[in-house]
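In the design runs reported in the main text, the only information available to the sequence generator was the tokenized backbone. The following block is the verbatim input for one such run; it is reproduced so that readers can re-run the procedure and compare outputs position by position.
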């Protein structure tokens, strides 16, 4: 389980004439994602989604608030242990272009302290899941956009983490590759994994996520299951729910 408690992230913006102003990218968000649960984070550009995910992965220190990660009854706080138990996918991750996808994964296996045989087995498993066999030994700088995205996703899977934090994982992927990622996430949920999943694809979120958290201007606008959100707004699709809530810019007060 991963829990955020009143997270705040403030950035300083330089204005004209040496003036500075504060911008709250995230403004008091509390959120918990349980074991065996996939929670989707939705919001317009600039809503604070990526900043929230970076803080929940402990890659970014919050201005205020706390993030806790629990494995069973044990809470982990050591930076090394956090990295061993989280697979974090950024939407702008840069990879080592001169390495092949296989070499990248082998290197990460060493960094995570995995046995060489386990790394080999895991690479073959991931390559099958993501349909990487045809380019696994090609240099990353020679890969297409979709292939590079699959290589980036693969690096998050190599150490079999307990928590996945994915920011736009299917961006740039074709329908078949996207479906493979979605099916993989569902199987990981069955294994009791914790998944925090940001996407702009409404149909994908509706099909995959147990619960949706919509944020706007750094705050939670509304959260609930896709069915509950549709019931509250009287809409037939999550896309229409999203448009309704963002246009309104305020919370729905009905309780369900």
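Verbatim output:
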């Amino acid at each position: 389980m991963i829990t955020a408690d009143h997270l705040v992230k403030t950035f300083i913006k330089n204005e004209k004439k040496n003036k500075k102003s504060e911008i709250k990218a995230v403004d008091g968000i509390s959120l918990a994602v349980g074991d065996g649960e996939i929670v989707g984070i939705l919001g317009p550009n600039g809503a604070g989604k990526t900043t929230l995910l970076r803080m929940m992965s402990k890659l970014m220190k919050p201005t205020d608030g706390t993030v806790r990660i629990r494995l069973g009854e044990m809470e982990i706080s050591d930076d090394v242990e956090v990295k061993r138990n989280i697979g974090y996918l950024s939407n702008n991750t840069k990879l080592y272009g001169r390495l092949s996808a296989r070499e990248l994964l082998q290197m990460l296996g060493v960094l995570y302290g995995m046995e060489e045989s386990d790394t080999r087995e895991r690479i073959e498993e991931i390559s099958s899941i993501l349909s990487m066999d045809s380019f696994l030994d090609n240099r990353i700088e020679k890969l297409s956009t979709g292939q590079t995205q699959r290589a980036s996703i693969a690096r998050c899977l190599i150490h079999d983490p307990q928590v996945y934090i994915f920011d736009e994982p299917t961006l740039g992927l074709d329908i078949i590759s996207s479906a493979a990622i979605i099916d993989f996430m569902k199987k990981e949920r069955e294994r009791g994994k914790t998944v925090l999943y940001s996407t702009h694809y409404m149909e994908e979120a509706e099909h995959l996520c147990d619960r949706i958290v919509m944020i706007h201007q750094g705050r939670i606008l509304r959260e609930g299951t896709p069915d509950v959100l549709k019931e509250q707004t009287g809409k037939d699709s999550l896309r229409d729910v999203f448009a309704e809530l963002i246009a309104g810019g305020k919370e729905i007060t009905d309780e369900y």
